[in-house]
């Protein structure tokens, strides 16, 4: 039986405010990676783009999981401000020739310093790639992620709002959603995180 082939593009906030959850981010991302490795029913390739106002850093580009480097204190060093729209726009353009893409955005801050893209640009890019069959997820810490995601065209059931103490758990939820998405053959739908509604509601009660 052939495996489902899925590309995941992960846009990860590396701004100064992420220093407050640096260990959870490192361990959470590494566990996310390991969960995908354990899924023998699908074949994944992963891209990781870190961002802050010091620049965008592409850690890996559509790379087989066994070659994806884990995060550590050596390669994940939060600093500076939040060019969120530039990171999203750059990531989409890097992958625009790919199909069956799960595009995950994880941030604890709102856009404040992009130079190349604005909200309208990103909304249009997201809409175009959704038409092409991409799936988008927005994970927002210490903010109303549903509003932030909605501003760029990502629906409520594909978003999660959490606080910094829940960073590692949020990676776990996203890992389960990623495996489920792959198991369905990478068919995009506006309910990526719907099976985790109870978990998200409990998280929000603790915020």
User: Could you tell me the number of beta strands?
Assistant: 6
| Radius of gyration based on Cα positions | 15 Å
Across the major sheet, the strand order is: 3-2-1-4-5-6
Going by helix content, strand content and strand pairing, the class is alpha/beta
Shape: globular
CATH superfamily: von Willebrand factor, type A domain
Q: List the domain count as a whole number.
A: 1
| SSE ordering | EHEEHEHEHEHH
Q: How many H/I helices? A: 6
Describe this structure in words.
By secondary structure, the chain is α/β, with parallel strands linked by helices. 36% of the residues lie in helices and 24% in strands. The protein has six helices and six strands; from the N terminus they run βαββαβαβαβαα. The protein has helices at 22-38, 84-95, 119-131, 145-151, 167-183, 197-205; strands spanning 4-13, 42-52, 55-64, 101-107, 135-141, 159-162. It has a six-stranded mixed sheet, with helices on both faces. The N and C termini lie far apart (44 Å). Mean pLDDT is 92; it is low at 196-207.
Features:
single chain, 207 residues, alpha/beta, Rossmann fold, 6-stranded mixed β-sheet, 6 helices, 6 strands, 24% strand, globular, disordered C terminus
Secondary-structure map with pairings?
Layout (H helix, E strand, L loop, with lengths): L3 E10 L8 H17 L3 E11 L2 E10 L19 H12 L5 E7 L11 H13 L3 E7 L3 H7 L7 E4 L4 H17 L13 H9 L2
Parallel strand pairs: 1-2, 1-4, 4-5, 5-6
Antiparallel strand pairs: 2-3
Helix pairs in contact: 1-5, 2-3
């Amino acid at each position: 039986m052939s495996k489902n082939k899925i590309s995941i593009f992960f846009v990860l906030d590396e701004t100064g405010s992420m220093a407050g959850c640096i260990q959870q981010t490192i361990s959470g991302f590494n566990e996310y990676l390991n969960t995908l490795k354990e899924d023998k029913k699908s074949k994944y390739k992963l891209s990781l783009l870190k961002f802050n106002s010091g620049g965008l850093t592409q850690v890996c580009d559509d790379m087989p999981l066994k070659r994806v480097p884990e995060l550590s204190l050596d390669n994940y060093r939060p600093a500076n401000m939040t060019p969120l729209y530039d990171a999203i726009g750059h990531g989409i353009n890097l992958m625009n020739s790919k199909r069956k893409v799960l595009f995950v955005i994880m941030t604890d801050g709102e856009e404040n310093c992009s130079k190349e893209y604005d909200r309208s640009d990103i909304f249009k890019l997201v809409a175009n790639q959704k038409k092409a069959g991409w799936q988008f997820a927005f994970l927002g810490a210490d903010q109303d992620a549903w509003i932030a995601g909605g501003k760029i065209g990502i629906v409520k059931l594909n978003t999660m709002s959490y606080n910094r103490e829940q960073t590692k758990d949020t990676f776990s939820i996203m890992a389960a959603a990623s495996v489920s998405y792959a198991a369905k053959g990478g068919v995009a739908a506006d309910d990526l995180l719907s099976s985790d509604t109870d978990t998200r509601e409990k998280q929000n009660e603790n915020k």
